[in-house]
Amino acid sequence: MTAPALSRTPRWVWLLAAALAATQPLLIYWLIYFPPAGTTSSGLTIPDSAIFIQAMDLFAQDYASPYALHTPGGASHALALYPMPYLWVYGMLGAAARALGLSHLVAYGWANGFAAFAYLCAAYFFLREAAPRVAARAFLLFALSGGPGGLLYVFTGLMGWHGAPGFDEQFFRYALYELVEGAHLLPMTYFPRLYYTSSLALCFSAMALLLRHRRVPSRHGLPLAALCLASGAFINPRFGVFTAAILALYAWRQPAVWKGVALTACAGLLGWATAWRMMQASPVVIQNHVDTGDMAMWLSPFISAALLHLFLFPQEIRRAIPRLSPLERIAACLAICYVMAFTAFFVLHQAYYGNLQIARDGSLAARVSDPALALGIALALAWLWWRRLQPAAHPGQAHDEAPGWIVLWLLAFLAMALSGFGHGWFLRFGPQRLMVFLWLPLCILSAYALERMQAQHPQNARRYMLALLGCGALSILAGFCCFQGPLGRVEAKGPYPQYHAEIITQSDARVIGQIGEGRVLAPALASDAVVRLHGNPVFFGIGSFNLADEPYVFLRDRTAWFFSPEPSMEERRQFILEWGIRYVFYPETEPIDGAVLAQLRQIPWLLPSAQEGNSVLFEVGEGLIILDNWNQ
Question: Cys-Cys crosslink for 369: which of 10, 404, 421, 533, Cβ 3.0 to 4.6 Å?
Answer without folding.
Answer: 421
